[in-house]
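ok so i was messing around last nite and threw this chain in just to see what happens. nothing serious, just curious
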Amino acid sequence: HAETAAARGASDAAAALREAIAAAAAEDAADANDCSAAEEDGTVVENQSQNQNQNQNQNQNAAREWLAAAARAVAIAELACADAATPETRAAADAAADAELAALCALCVLLARRRGTRGRGGKTRGAPRDSPSLALVGGPNAEAFRARPGVRRAATLRASLRLLQLEAEAAAVVTIVSDEGTVSDEGTVSDAWPAATATLATMAVLGEEFCLLREHARWRAAGGGTGDDHGIASHLPAPPPLPPALEAVVRGGDANGANGASSEGAEALLERMEECHVLLLHGLHALRRHVSHRHSWVSSSGRNVGGETIGGVSMITPGARALLSPTLGAFLHPRFPFRARLRRRALRLVAAAATSTSLASSAATAAGDADAKAAAKAAASALCEHVWPSLSALLEVDHPARRAAGVTAAESERGAISTSTSTGCARYVIETSSRCISAFLRSGAWGWGRAEREICAPHAPTAFWKAAGPPYRALALRMYSRLKARSISHWSPYDPVGV
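result:
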């Protein structure tokens, strides 16, 4: 795909991509020659290591220059799209910008793939140590992504998700068990995840725009912006103003007022809102598959009992911890006007992350691996800090009795789920909450007392079954049963901790 994109374009980004492909081929050839020469001579040249390090640094600097050149070419092409005056020039500028962005995406994927592989001689490939993800989206705030249209946004999001997968594969710990029973690591695990940061930034931009556009669509449907002082919208406050760039897109080139209440403006608003919704659905689905993938290894003391591998450690996917952020919690919180389908997709993502955390914590406890146990507890703590408050708020929407006595529901923000309606995903909320509580208990982030208080809130566990009403008691019984089912499914009958 990279070679095809480079052959089609004659731009700066395509030229940088061609240089990267040529350098990769030359590096592979030099690597093969060095390896074959060492095999023929049976000796190791002393200066070979120094030459390899020098070449590697040169290739990394060249890769940074290629990335910068390709990013500049995309920025220039996108500025040309904004300055186009006629439909013909606009179409040509859009085609050029699409080609530039395709070359940049291919270059980023190529460099990320080289970064995660080693040559035949065992040396690291000549790729930049820093991830190219931020250059693709325009920094931690995804400024470049925010200004792109729907087609180029889809290409950017797809490339970002691919970079996240490649970065996780590059950082996965390759654990080797030697004949003497010692365990060695041949990988690196980094605390910084630029690919996860870039992906979350794009998701945050899409989520923010969807909420703003849906609030404006509801306000206009109620008669807002039409000048009618007797409509339903006259009793509602005006929604937050749209950013200038988004306002220009929503107007659709219409100059009849800033509110864009014309038919063209309304059509552009709905089209942009649907684009954000579709991209968010795809992104959440891809992230769920990413966090569900697990790496595992079996220690030297591992044994097989009844088909169960005892002594193995199931690792959480590298980078999954960085995805458990406030951005993910915002997709669940009822004050944001996301659709039920999108909220269910986010709940599936959280449930998959909680399941992976539970399995990793159980395996680490059985194997006595302190590092894996700490990693699982860190992931559970992130779930507790960023996700659990939103899950609790969703439970309160479907079951108002969970609110503390004397505390009324705060006035919901514009576009939020009404407190008199359902979330539309009650079963998903209960299942996800049970999986999260199981992960908290398994990792040690919560004790049983905290879990029972959260299930029976706002009552005390000792007085809950007398004070709570029948619907709320049915909810608690359902959560207890799901928690028990998750606990039994995660514990092996040969695991002494589970027993």
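not much to say yet. The mean pLDDT is 76.
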